[in-house]
Amino acid sequence: MIFGMFGLAMSTTFFGIATTYWQLVIARVAQGCAGGASWTIGLGMLADVFPPHKLGVVMGTVLAANTLGFTIGPALGGLLYQYHGYAAPFIFCSVLAFFDFLAVCWIAEPTKLSHVDPTSEVIAHAHTLESAPSPAHERFTDERTPLLRDGPILSHHGPPPKPTNSDTKITMWSLLQRWTILSCLLATVLGSSIFSGIEPTLPIHLQDTFHADASTVGLIFMAIVIPTFLSPLVGLASDRFGRKTISAAGTLLVALVAPLIALPSKTLWLIVPPLMVFGLASSMITTPLLPEMGEVVHELGGGAYATVYALYNMAYSIGMLVGPVIAGLLIDKVGFLGEMCAFTACLLAAAPVAYWAKWA
């Protein structure tokens, strides 16, 4: 993670001083690798520290922070470019990444602790044994008294808790063999492709239909971004009501509301309510997936959180790559309404496979 943040600072600086096309390509590739490293390791560190039943709120908070940066970044970059020139946004971001690098250097490596359920019967019985008064003749012992009695203490109170397979090495291939991981990756590709697919095509629709200028398009996009700040609440709901339930409900909401965004209307601002539902539903799709994948690793004994979140980042990147390409082809062939209907059909077709087939 330290190398990732340092690489992010250096590659962003290189962006500002690049003078040729290939220098920009190299800077962009380096920036993507560095950002992916810090993002993946950061999620893995959180999963190491927090127990699975609290990961929903934690990952929701992370996604909300990501949305905050996604929201203020373009506006801040535009102001810096307008008043201080081309290199100013990159210099500012590289300085910010350098301070983040210094902050990461102060973060201690998380200790691998066993997340014990304090409500379990074994722990409750142990507390009972500790608090129970001992007989008078057993209160005082001399050096001849054995510290450990014969036989396990809990032999008459059920079997001890089942140990985890912490010695088994978890590989990327072994994770991909579990259907829960595959279904989460499929849902991630779907969610990121739909969200990234509407980003380049919605401005075209707004300009062609409503003759909206750049500032108006930016305000309309806020309708998608603002609801994603509710990601911590979405994570809390997924911890309480089930991650599959919340994610599947988000998929259904996106499928239902996508065509409403493209319906003809005479008033521009009528598009705002369906866009807000779209933004919230997109958060409902992706937020529960992170803790669900982390819990799978926890059940396998832990130690591979970075690996599973690397798979998540790969799936998210695939969706971000495929979504705009498919959306661009669809809007040219069938228009914006046809594109939204195609997204709906894709979600409805893939949802049973992703959520109801074998997700245990």
Automatic annotation (TrEMBL):
Topological type in the membrane: Multi-pass membrane protein
PROSITE patterns named among the record's database cross-references: MFS, SUGAR_TRANSPORT_1
Subcellular location: Membrane
Pfam families (UniProt xref): MFS_1
GO cellular component: membrane
Keywords assigned by UniProt, alphabetized: Membrane, Transmembrane, Transmembrane helix, Transport
Position of the signal peptide: none
GO molecular function: transmembrane transporter activity
Keyword Membrane among UniProt keywords: yes
Regions that span the bilayer: 55-80, 86-108, 179-198, 218-238, 245-262, 268-290, 311-331, 337-357
Residues annotated as domain Major facilitator superfamily (MFS) profile: 1-360
InterPro entries: MFS, MFS_dom, MFS_trans_sf, MFS_Vesicular_Transporter, Sugar_transporter_CS
Designated name of the protein: Major facilitator superfamily domain-containing protein
Organism, scientific name: Jimgerdemannia flammicorona
